[in-house]
Amino acid sequence: MNTTFVTTDRPPTRSGIAWKVTLILIPLITLGLLLWLRQMEVKALRQRSVSSYGTVPAFQLTNQNGQPFGSPQLAGKIWIADFIYTTCPGPCPMISSRMSELQKPLEKTDVHLVSFSVDPGKDTPAVLRSYAERLQAEPGRWDFLTGPKSAIYKLSHDGFKLAVSDGSDAQGIPVHSTRMVLVDRRGEIRGYYDAAEADAMTKLLADANHLLREQPE
């Protein structure tokens, strides 16, 4: 008795092969498109103009090492400023963390970081030095400043155009801006960046790199 085996396997059709190829290509094309869009975003940030918002007035305070620090030490440098205090129960840890994150991408530049205490009565050089150590602040690149409250508040309000209050009319704690400020080599303010915003550091780094090209050492 002869037995005949009939196979049901059929060679794949062209439409079936095309569908499988399409399924493979879709995620690859999507990834490529996302990378291209990201590159375009970075390119646009690099090419955008950086405005000017006035000049930071001359100042002289004291850093975490007890040394005089101010305009003379920052002359000719690009620098980034923020206002914080070490016992802050609010946004200061986040602001300082964002500032700390800038150290790595800027490590091969001469961009300087400066944090002004809005509670200088408590934030002595020793207290600020301990705070700097907790943040792993690079010596010589990131200075924490204290000094007369009147001088710091005047600098924040009149110089940087940032809101500040010693808390006497609120809950008894200092109130200050969460914005970081970019200053160029001529002492001109070139940008404000709210540390609470997700893309603030991307914009700040892009503008800092723009200034480094615009104003090389």
Brief digest:
The chain has 217 residues and is α/β, with parallel strands linked by helices. It has six helices and nine strands. The longest helix has 34 residues, at 14-47.
Question: Order of strands across the widest beta sheet?
Answer: 5-4-3-8-9
Q: Biggest sheet, open or closed, and with what strands and sense?
A: 5 strands, mixed
Order of helices and strands: HEEHEHEHEHEEEEH
Overall shape: elongated
- CATH class of the largest domain equals Alpha Beta
Q: Which band does the percent of strand residues land in?
A: 15-25%
CATH architecture designation of the largest domain: 3-Layer(aba) Sandwich
Radius of gyration: 27 Å
Number of helices: 6
Q: Could you tell me how far the N terminus lies from the C terminus, measured between alpha carbons in angstroms?
A: 96 Å
CATH fold label of the largest domain: Glutaredoxin
E-strand count:
9
Spans where pLDDT lies below 50 across 5 or more residues = none
Helix-residue proportion: 25-40%
Secondary-structure content class: alpha/beta
CATH superfamily of the largest domain: Glutaredoxin
Mean pLDDT: 87
Compute the number of structural domains: 2
Oligomer class: single chain
